[in-house]
Amino acid sequence: MTIEIKVPPLPESVSDATLINWHKKTGDQISRDENLVDLETDKVVLEIPSPKSGVLTEIKVKDGAIVKAGDLLAIMTESSGVINSNDSNQTDSSNSDKRASNIGSDVSVAQDNTGDKKISPSVKILLKEHDLDASMINGSGKDGRITKTDVLEYLRDDEGESVRANDIDMPIQQSSTLTEESQGNNEQRVPMSRLRAKIAERMVEAQTNSAMLTSFNEIDLHEVIELRKKYKESFLEEHSVKLGFMSFFSKATVEALKKFPIINASVEGQDIVYHDRYDIGIAVSSERGLMVPVIRNLDALSFADIERSIADLAVKVKKGSISMDDLSGGTFTITNGGTFGSLISTPILNPPQSAILGMHGIKERPVVVDGEIVIRPMMYVALTYDHRIIDGREAVLFLVSIKESLEDPERLMFEI
Fold first, then answer.
1. Which of 106, 133, 158, 391 is the catalytic position?
2. CATH 2.40.50.100 residue ranges for the chain
3. 365 or 166: whose pLDDT is higher?
4. How far apart are the first and last CA of the chain?
5. Domain 197-413 has what CATH class?
């Protein structure tokens, strides 16, 4: 029986995807639910599993092509029997030998560096070309499989930037043996990834379509830190998750949003949409770029629930298993530049949201408390907001509300 492998329905806000990596080639045996190909959208990498066991008979779309929902990717023939692993290995070996004769005689060497990880021939070639050991790279595919994107992101992180050559991103090699002619011409042109291009588009959209203004305040986190020290062991024992700062800030944010609902609103044309939910996006940095997974109905969650949700979403981002649903529908965003050492910054809005809270590094500074100079752990916070619908009064009082909640965190924890 012949089966067509097609692009599945894409999320409503996604018009197309880029085919970034086939995990199988023509003639390969396929097991049911085995990942065949990776498609990259503006936000996530989608894995297309095989609907049946059988043989991949024809590939219709090559790596790098732009595809839309319903496009035919490949054709497979269903197998009525159980796939023989020895036959599969023999087929892979035979096909690898043929492939090696076309691209060079050293492909088999790349296989020596893959260890126990399952790696497609195209990824093996890429590893060989850059003399990389597969054990150095974290796989984001199914069961930890290394994809071509994983290798390219590793190269970008390792070298700082990359160039396009033969449809493969290659790192810039700074060699001491460059000729005088090549030394004067080191400029490189690098195409953006879909995620980076989407980030750029949204940043420009935020600047163009809103009147952004940023207000600042500072928070004394002495009481929060003392409370965490007091309860961290019992909290971990009771809930099997650590008590972090983000749950405090998330709770304080929701309380402030309840007082000033305009901060949780958005603009649609000439209308202001007041949201009746508190779906808070938490900005997370990944190897592919910045992502903002959303915690739904955060107002109904306990501190432990919030910490678990943040941990679960962070794991999804790291593994590349984050979905479009995880990234959609937020009403407000929190970003923590302090993770990377930022002391103060002005975050950019996450459209169509109208405000974003920026956290920063905690630094011990001399401050005046009850008429005396003391050393306290202080953090600057920033609220960037759309001045078209949010006035300075609401923005400043919003930050004051967060400050008051965090400087008296017991009231926040016990909801009094």
1. 391
2. 2-171
3. 365
4. 65
5. alpha beta
Decide if 387 is catalytic.
Answer: yes
Average of pLDDT values for 22-47? Answer: 86
Read off the pTM: 0.63
Q: What is the pLDDT of residues 127-179, one digit of tens each?
A: 766 677 777 787 766 567 787 667 766 765 554 433 332 333 333 333 333 44
Q: Which is higher by pLDDT, 23 or 196?
A: 23
391 labelled catalytic = yes
Choice among 222, 239, 275, 387 that is catalytic: 387
Distance CA 163, CA 156 (A): 10
The mean pLDDT of the chain is: 80
* Measured distance CA(343)–CA(357) in Å, rounded: 14
* Three-state helix/strand/coil letters over the chain: CEEEEECCCCCCCCCCEEEEEECCCCCCEECCCCEEEEEECCCCEEEEECCCCEEEEEECCCCCCEECCCCEEEEEEECCCCCCHHHHHHHHHHHHHHHHHHHCCCHHHHHCCCCCCCCCHHHHHHHHHCCCCHHHCCCCCHHHCCCHHHHHHHHHHHHCCEEEECCEEEECCCCCCCCHHHHCCCCCCCCCCHHHHHHHHHHHHHHHHCCEEEEEEEEECHHHHHHHHHHHHHHHHHHCCCCCHHHHHHHHHHHHHHHCHHHHCEEECCEEECCCCCCEEECEEECCEEECCEECCHHHCCHHHHHHHHHHHHHHHHHCCCCHHHHCCCCEEEEEHHHHCCCCCCCCCCCCECEEEEECCEEEEEEEECCEEEEEEEEEEEEEEECCCCCHHHHHHHHHHHHHHHHCHHHHHCCC
| CATH class of the 2-171 domain in this structure | mainly beta
